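Dissemination and training. As part of the outreach component of the grant, students in the summer workshop were shown how a complex can be specified as a set of sequence lines and then modelled as a single object. The example used during the hands-on session is reproduced here so that future cohorts can follow it. Participants entered these lines:
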Amino acid sequence: MGTDNAPAEDIRGVVEALGDPGRGDGFEMILVGRGDAIEAELARYPRLDRSRVSIHHAPDVIAMNDEPVQAVRSKRESSIVRGITLHRDGAADAFVSAGNTGAVMAASTFILGRIQGISRPTIASQFPAANGFTIVADVGANVDTKPRNLYEFAVMASVYAEQIFGYANPTVGLLNVGEEEGKGEERAVQAFELLRESRLNFIGNVEGRDILKGTARVVVCDGFVGNVVLKFAESVPGLLRTKLSGYATTGFLAKLRLGFARGALKNIFREMDYQEYGGVPLLGVNGVSIIGHGGSTAKAVKNMIFKADEMVRREVNRRIGEQLGL
Amino acid sequence: MGTDNAPAEDIRGVVEALGDPGRGDGFEMILVGRGDAIEAELARYPRLDRSRVSIHHAPDVIAMNDEPVQAVRSKRESSIVRGITLHRDGAADAFVSAGNTGAVMAASTFILGRIQGISRPTIASQFPAANGFTIVADVGANVDTKPRNLYEFAVMASVYAEQIFGYANPTVGLLNVGEEEGKGEERAVQAFELLRESRLNFIGNVEGRDILKGTARVVVCDGFVGNVVLKFAESVPGLLRTKLSGYATTGFLAKLRLGFARGALKNIFREMDYQEYGGVPLLGVNGVSIIGHGGSTAKAVKNMIFKADEMVRREVNRRIGEQLGL
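and obtained this result:
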């Protein structure tokens, strides 16, 4: 209910997910939010199979700029709190939201609880790389983390990379300012030891350039640097578009040349566009909670739903628990 | 002497700098390194005005992978140590090197000393932005910094942005994971207070995406995150080239389209290429010390020399001292 174009865009995403010829089978949707608004939107899709959709009324709305923890405490009848509670109570196998990220993180952690052995849940995001994707955790702004947190991020992101991206025994790199052991801030130096002693496929320190190079399948870092790099990366296509538009105004020939290249460039930008991937899971909670951008398109919402479906099927949480138990 | 193509590429840069029709006047060069190797390279440029070039023999070489502090201590007759000592003793107004970055940082700090009031020198780097450049400090891997260090980085980078880039009273942003005050790691929360109480043109927290947007002319951060973002940014053109090449192999038409766009793309990539800018100054030492990539081309070396020239003329250090004295 709190996204930029709620609930129209979100519901279009649900309809597209249910109708997808490849991945649209095998799940049902509970739409949590203001019943009348949801009903009005659903009425726009008369051919939708309504037996696969139910509505759970939740009158409160957590806005994008609400202070997360306070909003979760005070707005008990919000779609975020109600939806995650339905998941905890077993009425749903997963929860998906493009609403207030902090609120989804807080409500998921409070209501679902953490997987045993995990001290802080993490958000892992995917970056395009020369050879597929690089999974970076934490990008969810877990700041002032301890070395132990970075080890846990590595375990969670490794299971996620293996189960959802199909990277067997994924390589793990520790984000640092140099490749040599002993480099970097105190936290990284200590995390290096924990990772080396673990059963993960740890390949040592990696640097900022290694994310796009794909040197390691999984890159772990404190959420401060991960969040900065994620937001930086998301802003790259915007700068390229601005610069290309500037170039196009330098003359007719320049414009013509760029016109020819549009298709190629669109392809590249698409790979750098989060809408393609939908949301990212909050790893480490006792459940499946998928978080998307507030500006998610229907396509992004659809892909978030597919990701939730896959997280449940691949039993990512059970495998994380297993890895920690080793 | 320790760069990837030393001394050929470095000396070609010197020759190009001295011969530049626009900025090549008003300075002389002392080439510090192995005399015979330098002499042999210089012999390739018979038309060079040798009255503007002298050679200072330094037999030791600090390699790119030498441990910086140890190398500076043990290799007293290296080009880095000898060159910076010549600068300290007044034989040169500035020092330029594309050698081992850590060694140049360490030698500059030990030999030149720090500007009064500066506890840690910083490397500030420029990022392309929609409206010019964003200056980010620290990117030189000053890790485990204190809030006071971030304030000092802001002072030094502001003077640099104003004097070298011509941005009057430049806006300063604190790199963080959210815009709201009180966000982020403890260091950032405390640095926010110092910056707000300062006479700098502080506009508050900025996020990773604001670097390329150009929200603030100066962005300050701990060197760990700054170094990661810098190296990430430097790797973006490489990924784009890889992806575009991949697209070009999808068919004749794709290749043709890309051929047309090559000129436009080259323009964009050039702006993201550090070779264009040459090196970056180590701010906060009692002198002018310009540091370049080990793989610097002659063009990059030339631009480093011009930057050194400008740093001296604009009296950047005196102005930093003034700002701190306020």
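The longest strand of chain A covers residues 122-129. Students were then asked to discuss how this feature might be tested experimentally.
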